[in-house]
Specification:
Blueprint lengths: L1 H20 L1 E15 L2 E4 L3 E5 L2 E16 L2 E20 L5 E24 L6 E15 L5 H10 L4 H11 L2 E16 L2 E16 L2 E14 L1
Antiparallel strand pairs: 1-4, 1-10, 2-3, 3-5, 4-5, 5-6, 6-7, 7-8, 8-9, 9-10
Length: 224
């Protein structure tokens, strides 16, 4: 009888720990990447090349985290973003040219270890907290069109130069990886949660002429 009583007491004592630490969450991610790619143009004797720039790409995706360790959350986020830019190229000898819209696209995975900074009491909410984190990120991106790329296709490709460039950009995606720091405010109501996150991404060769960029992120999800 004493053994059974001790087991019951132990299980009851562990229940609060389970409710605090052992849960998962998932949901929708919306974000704005505050990056900027500048216009570029170059003219030579027989060629002219102009590429438009863009900034502030929007991202959409999902996330999943598990709080199975007492001191940190392990978080995985997937997001995709795309942006159009103008491209104009002309070559007087062959008479070939391009004047069209092209696209830049990125598929990204963020792996983050997050930790609670401070808990907050907000009326009508089960709980809220400020949190911070550090992690690793991996990006698969399409290259930006440049003059060397177009001139190489001009001498080697058959058919439409524009179609050849589109296929080249699709077939020559590149992998870029880096690290990130982030801070956020998460609020929970029953099984729902809202999470606002500021993130700074450090990834070389992801954005031309820049070693990093910041992003603003909104998450809407469920927790169990």
């Amino acid at each position: 009888m004493n053994i059974r009583k001790n087991i019951i007491i132990l299980l009851v004592g562990l229940m609060p720990l389970s409710s605090v630490f052992a849960f998962v969450g998932f949901g929708l991610h919306l974000g704005q990447n505050q990056l900027a790619i500048s216009d570029f143009s170059k003219s030579m004797a027989t060629t002219s090349f102009t590429r438009g720039g863009f900034d502030n790409t929007f991202a959409v995706g999902g996330y999943f985290y598990i709080d199975a360790i007492p001191f940190i959350d392990l978080d995985v986020e997937f997001q995709a973003s795309a942006k159009d830019y103008k491209l104009a190229f002309s070559e007087s000898v062959s008479g070939q040219g391009i004047d069209s819209d092209f696209g830049w696209a990125s598929a990204t995975t963020y792996l983050t270890a997050r930790k609670k900074l401070i808990g907050l009491g907000i009326p009508l909410l089960a709980n809220a907290k400020l949190h911070y984190g550090v992690g690793y990120n991996k990006h698969v991106i399409t290259p930006m069109a440049d003059l060397d790329m177009v001139e190489g296709l001009l001498t080697s490709a058959s058919g439409s130069l524009e179609d050849g460039l589109k296929k080249y950009l699709e077939d020559n995606t590149k992998d870029v990886s880096g690290f990130h720091l982030q801070a956020g405010l998460k609020a929970k109501l029953l099984m729902g949660e809202v999470d606002f996150i500021y993130r700074y991404v450090m990834a070389k060769d992801l954005v031309p002429d820049s070693k990093g960029f910041s992003s603003l992120n909104l998450r809407l999800g469920l927790t169990f």
